[in-house]
Every structure is written in structure tokens, then in C-alpha cells.
Amino acid sequence: MIKKMICVLLIFMTLLLEGCWNNRDITDLGIVTALGIDKAADGNIEITFQIISPSSHGGSQSGSTSSQIGSSSTIEISSEGADIFDAARNIIPKLSKKAYYSQIQLLVISNEMAEEGLDKMWDFFERDHEVSRLFRVIVVKSGTAKSVLEATALANPIGAVEISDSIDNQAFGKSVKIQAFKVSELLSEPLTGLVTGVIDPGGSNKLTDMKVEGGAVFKNAKLAGFLDNDETRGYLFASDQIQSTILTIANPAEQGNLVSIEVAGSSSDLTAELINGKPKLGVEITAYGNIGDEQGSADLTELDDVKKLESESEALISKNIRDMLNTSQKTLDSDILNFNDLLYKHNYQDFEKIKGDWNKFYRDADISIHVQFTIKRSGIITKPAYEQSPSSQ
Amino acid sequence: MLGDFKRFYRAMRLKAADGNMNAEEPKVPVPIPQTSAEIKTALENTFNGSFDFKIRSFEDDTVLMAYIDGLVDKLLIAETIVQPMMQAAKEIKIGGQEKKKAVYLKTKLAAICEMTEFSDFNECVVSILSGSTMIFVDGDVTALNISQQKFEKRAIMEPATETVSRGSREGFTESLQINTTLLRRIIKDGNLVFEVRPIGRITKTNVSICYLKGLANQEIVDEVRKRLRNIKTDAILESGYLEEYIVDSPLSIFPMAFNSERPESVAGGILDGRVAILCDGTPNVMTVPNLFVDYLQYAEDYNNRWVFSIIIRAVRFFAFFLSTMAPAYYIALLCFHQDVIPFKLLVTLAASRQSVPLSPLIEMLVLTLLFEIIKESGLRISRSIGQAVSIVGGLIVGEAAVQAGIFSAPAVVIIGATSLSAFIISKLDAPVIIMRVSLMIAANILGILGIVLLTIFFLIYMCSLKSFGVPYLSPITPLCGKDMKDTYIRIPLWAMFERPETVTRRYGEKDLRNKRND
């Protein structure tokens, strides 16, 4: 009986010893929404935190029934350190709250830092137990990450949310969204190239002037170069990440006029074979879309015109992909579509032989592109009800 | 220390069940005095000169009629007793000894439905107090008991606490007679048995048990009878008193006997095989054995369409979880697991908590207390100023406190939703509050882990409760597959081919069966 009592007492005591461990008041947390990594002097890293500072809402007048998120603003604080963890702790002298990374939305890396290598700064994000694995990664084309984070946000009081919304909205079709877990996955594959999003400050300090478009290509975790807008679109088509985009092609019925086709969906099929020890790669795209906008007043639902539109679209997509492949093969030398993985899966033994020189083989590889595009609808009208006066161009 | 408490508790229970404690006086029959003068003095001594006790004598005390004014039907007495008595008393006086008997009067007072003879003076007194008229004959040791009660009672109205949108609006009243009538009108079966006994030394309240013979588990009926017989107390004022004496787990926080003011609900229970306990003086009728799922089912479910009933039952189950766990989850998520909260909500919550001086736990506890105060004062307040309470309550807690920065708006919203959903299962108000507060404290100590641990504890506790031998959480555990058709959902009535058997089946056999297989 006594023994039972002691056991029960010990169990209860252990519960009390833990006490309220991990109980944090939310006002003591500095919720980090975005992190910017820059290069500092002496090989140090400079980190910029964008932390939410909720405005004290309580004792306000009755007119403040507006949404409380509208009254939150952000603070940007920078600190230096040898690596990310060091720099993160060095922020304590400047910030009273404890940084809280579980809700981080965005990681901004300056191009200088990216050239040093993504793998050098990635360990912190994998090791820490609290860091969210869903944040988006973008590279600054020219400038510092600090300037991006300190820019004035207009559409949304939190700058990180504004940039994230811009990245998430993939209807543009020319920007890359990649999340941390995917970056971790791709970093562990040395032969594959990584593509992240790009933000271009353009020398402005207003967030609405900064464009999120294009892609940054990494080779062996170091920044190799950038893809421009059309090449990025080709990359998205080929890697089956495209959601929607607008293809502007010539109007087949009227010379000099343009038609805009909205891509509604696409699927991509990559093929890879080794023939005589040389890789033969292929990209096959099946996409469909609608007619969105027309200059001119032709009736584009005529079968011939539709066929012409389709082939024009196919040509445009094909060109984008071809440009992207040229860049990746010749200029950047980085297998961003992950062909090596396909060869590894389908042709393991042969691939093992050429694995060491994969970059060389990829550079000289023969990649065929086949696009099939179908136009499904033309909106709610077939042709404009009015005659357009000829443009003065 | 725990052992000491257990011993103390066991001693108390034994003492309560002990037959010698509060032993009633042995019921030795006291014979009725023979002469009228003696009868008169005996009666006047018993009633101590109360002004409402009346004695009417016929023919110079040949026949005495005793009654209590206000409890008897004076008009009926005048017609059926007094009028023929004028003639009969003369005959008794003139006639010989053989006519000086109460039985002779029985033949004369033919217009009365029920007449019984009593020979015990105490029984006569009790009868008079219950509203009967006693007829004493000079020279006879037996008396005639004529019960023609009529007293003012509340009319049958819609029960105040249980309103329905579809269904009968009759509610039980304070008179046992009317309550049994209401049940008889619903169940027209000879097997519906009503057994009555007076309980309580001073109040002698009539308590009746009611069951369907052949359907209800006879062991349970015998157990109910036995426990009622063992109640030794001065007064039984309400069925709630009975509940405390007879239930299986007297310390449990869950109500162990279902009570209702609607005949429809009680009749439904009787038809399931339950035993109903009616208590004179209260419209609340108890039903045993009691299951936890009874509180999540209403008789109205069967009146509405089955699809709607399924939806409403789901709402009720959800309301139960909301009213116990919502504040705890708010505390746990806000203090421990901020990474689970969606980003935009987190920003809003962080902003709302900026100016609040209290920690989430204290905030929730104070708000719960305030809402309970508002509820209770709304209950007790007189109707004329009842409106003011709701306005003041809403103003104080809702607007002013949030603007003053004492509470945060999300906390008020959560507590409001919690309290509101607690009204759906209003009979469970006690356990819900206890669970809510303890879960809040557990959430503050260990976060979601604390909530889970305490929920497991509560589940184990509920599983250990038994109501007259029937496990409290049947038919969920022990699982009774046949009864699942009416627990979470309600399948259409034409598809319910068998009676539910959780209440009537014999659990002893099943336990034995399991032991043999081990």
C-alpha cells in the first residue's frame, strides 16, 4: 500500500516538475514573417528579420472595428554573425522579443550570398525544430535582401505576405514558387539543378515597384545564373508546374493583329533514354486553353483559324522551352528538369557509367520537344460585334 | 491518506444504509377509541387545534365525520355523504347494536366510489392528512375511509424548461394522480404497473414507481424498490432528494438519474424498459437506469424527419465537445502550439492580446465565472427586471470589457459560443462546467497533451460509472451493435425492427461469459 502511494506521488511530482514548460505568452513572441540573408564584411552573414509588431489594439475607440490585421505592422531588424544561428542570437540586444520561426513565410537571399552557395546556409533551416518547412525561397536579382524586406508594403501591411501572395499567384506563369522542403529535397541531389524565384528591386524602396518574375538557377547549390521571363515559362511548362499563362500570338485571320490565348491546363511528360551511351531526352507537353483577347474583328472559331492558332501556340511554347533548354545546357550547365533522375530510374546500369560526367553528357544531349495545344473555347463571343478601325501602327 | 478517506467514505455509506439509523417508530397499530368523546379528544390532540381540521357530528355524536378543510371536495361530500348520512345516522341511533357498525354505513352510502375500513388510528390520521374523510361510529372500533380529495393544483401547462417545436405540450404537474393519469393516457397497457409508497417520516410523500411488467428488467425493478424502502429521512421534497439516496454512484459529477417534465419523454423511457419514479409535489419524474447518451437525445427527435434528426444529433454531439473543450483548446493553442494556428489568425490573435493584462487561462476562468453569474442571476431575477440583466450582462462583458482592454475579443467570442452551446445539453450543466474548468487548467499546464490526458481520465471515469448495474456509457461501450441505430443517428422508424436492449439485458451473464473465455 505504501509502495503504491509512493508510486502515485512520484508520478504526480513529475507532472508538477515540468510545470508550464513551453508555455509562452504570445505577446512575448516575435513572429518572424520573412528572413533576408546578405553578405557582410569579413565573411560574415547579415540577417534581416521582418517581425510582426501588433499595434496595441485594446484601448482604442469604438471606430476601430476594422480588421486587426490592418493595424499590425512590421519591424525590420538586422544583425550580423558567422552563421545563421549566430546572427539570429545576435539580434537579442536589439529586440526584446524572442524570435519565433514557425510562421515564417519567405526567405530572401541576395545574389551574392546565393553565389557563395545555398548549402552553406541551409543547415539551420533543417536542424531547428520550430522552423516551418513551407516558406518560399527567392533570390534578389541585384541588391540586398535587406532592401527588399525594408521596402514599404502598400497592398498588405506585412511585406512578406505581399511578396508571398505574389509568388503564390501562379496565374502569371513566369515566376517560380518553390518551398523549403522542396529545396531540401533538391539540395540532396547533386546532379540536379535548383530553380528558385527571383525578385528584382529595381532600385526602388516601394514593394509595388519590385517585380517577382523569372527564375534563378543553381548548380551544385551555387547560383549559376538567371532565367528570363519566357525561359522561366518554358521551365514551368516542362516541369509540369504551370497553372496558367497568357500566350500572345499573331492573329491568323488579320495581319498585324495579335490574339491572346489563356492556357488553362497543361501536363508534361519527360522521357529519357540512353542510346549508345548517349542520352536522348524528350519533353512532351499537352496543353489546352481558351481565346482570351483579340485585336481585330475576325471570327476566330473558323476551323482553319483555330488550327493556325493552335500551331502558333505550340510554336511559342516550344520556343520558350527550347530557349530554356539552351540556357540550361549551354550557359548554365545545370540539369534543371531532373533528367538524370529519369535515367537513374529507367536505365540504372548504363547511367551509372556516365554518372560521373553527367554535366558533359547533358550539355551535348539531344532534347526533342513536342507540344500539343488544343483550343477549347473562345469566351462567350466568337467575334466582336463591332468592326475595329484599323490600328494606326 | 487515500486509504483513510476510503475508509471514512465507506463508513458513511454503511451508516446511511444501516437500518437502525433514523429508525422509524415501530408501527404498532393503535386501536380506534370506542366512544365518540374519546374519538373526539384523540383527534383534537393529534391535530393540536388547527383551525382547518373539522369534525361534523350527526345525531349527537352517533356518527362523526372528520376532514381537513381545503383538502376535500366539499360539494361532493355534501351530496354523497352528508345527505344520506342524515337519514342513516337516525337509523343507527334508533337501531340496535348490530347497526352501530361502520359496515352498515357502507351499505347506506352507496353513491361513493371507494370506501375502505380502517382499524388503526394512525392510519386514520394519515388518511385525513391526505385529504380523505373519516367516518367514525360511536361504539365501533372500525372507521370508514372515504377519499374524495379536491385541492387547488396547477393546471397542465407546457413545461417551462423543456420546450419543443413539435410534440405534445403537456407537462407533468405537482399532483401524483395527474401524473399517473398522463402516463396512463399514453401507455394503454395493463402491464403498466404503478406501485406507491410513502417516503419520509414527516412529509410522508407519496412516491410511485412505474414500469412495464415483462419488459423492464425485473432485477432492476426489485433493486429500485429495495433502495426506496431503505430511505430513512424526514422529508422528501423533490425527486432530486430521491436521486441522491438511490443512485449507484452518489459522488459522481454526472447526473445518474434522468429526469424530465414531459410525459412523452418518460413514456419513451418506460417503453425502453426503464423504471420511472414519480414523486408527489414535483413535476420532475426520474427515470432509471440512466445512460449518458440519454442527454444527447430528445423525444423530439422522433417527431421530426429522420434526416433532420441526424443533423440535429450531430449538432448536439458537437455542442457537447464545443462546450467542454473550446476554451481549453484556445488556451493550449495560444500558449503552446502557436505553429498550428494559421498565419493570418495568429496575427489577429497576437494583436488582440497586446493590451490584455491577464494570461489566457485567467482570462478564460474569469469570463466563465462572469457568464455563470449572468446565467444564474437571470434565473433568479424576477420577471419584471429580467430584461435589464441580459442588457447589462451583454454590455459589461461584451462591449465595455473588451474596449477597456480587460479581455480580448476572441476570448469573449469563444466563451459566448461555449456557454451558448451548453444550453443545448442543459441537463448536463454540472459535469460540463467541471470538465471545462479542469480542461482549461490542464491545457495551461501541458498544452494539448494536458487536454488529452485529462480527457482520457474523464473517459475512464465515465466508463467506471454504473447506473443500477447498467454501464453509463452503453451502448457505446460495452458496444451494443443493435442499439447503434439510435445512438449517434436515428434511422427511420420503420427500419427499427427490434427494441433497444441496453437497459433490459442482463449484464451479469455477459460478464460471466467473458470471464470464462479468459
Write a concise synopsis of the structure shown.
The complex is a heterodimer of chains A (393) and B (518). Chain A is α/β, with parallel strands linked by helices and 393 residues long.
Keyword list:
heterodimer, A: 393 residues, alpha/beta, GMP Synthetase, Chain A, domain 3, nine-stranded mixed β-sheet, four-stranded mixed β-sheet, 13 strands, globular, B: 518 residues, alpha+beta, 3 domains, five-stranded antiparallel β-sheet
Folded structure, characterized:
The complex is a heterodimer of chains A (393) and B (518). Chain A has 393 residues and is α/β, with parallel strands linked by helices. Chain A folds into 2 domains: 26-227, no CATH class; 242-387, Nutrient germinant receptor protein C, domain 3 (GMP Synthetase, Chain A, domain 3), CATH 3.30.300.210. Chain A has helices at residues 2-18, 84-89, 111-116, 119-127, 145-150, 159-168, 180-187, 229-238, 303-332, 339-346, 348-354, 358-364, and strands at residues 29-39, 45-53, 73-81, 98-100, 106-110, 136-140, 194-200, 211-219, 222-227, 245-250, 258-275, 278-294, 366-377. In chain A, strand 10 (245-250) and strand 11 form a beta hairpin. In chain A, helix 8 (229-238) crosses helix 9 (303-332) and helix 10 packs across helix 11 (348-354). Chain A is globular, with a radius of gyration of 26 Å. The model of chain A is unreliable at 56-70 (pLDDT under 50). Chain B has 518 residues and is of the alpha+beta class. Chain B has 3 domains: 36-147, no CATH class; 176-302, no CATH class; 306-464, no CATH class. Chain B has 17 helices and 12 strands. Chain B has helices at residues 2-17, 36-47, 74-94, 102-108, 121-130, 176-186, 218-229, 239-246, 263-272, 306-335, 343-352, 360-380, 386-404, 409-422, 429-446, 448-464, 507-517, and strands at 53-58, 63-68, 115-118, 132-137, 143-147, 192-199, 205-212, 258-260, 275-279, 285-288, 466-467, 470-471. In chain B, strands 1-2-4-5-3 form a 5-stranded antiparallel β-sheet, with helices on both faces. In chain B, strands 6-7-9-10-8 form a 5-stranded antiparallel β-sheet, with helices on both faces. A two-stranded antiparallel ribbon of chain B has the order 11-12. In chain B, strand 11 and strand 12 (470-471) form a beta hairpin. The longest helix of chain B has 30 residues, at 306-335. The two termini of chain B are 35 Å apart. Mean pLDDT of chain B is 85; it is low at 511-518. The A-B interface holds A 1, 5, 15, 18-20, 22-27, 29, 31, 33, 52, 54-60, 62, 67-69, 71-72, 100, 102-103, 105, 130, 132, 158, 161 and B 1-3, 334-336, 338-339, 343-344, 346-356, 359, 402-405, 408, 444-447.
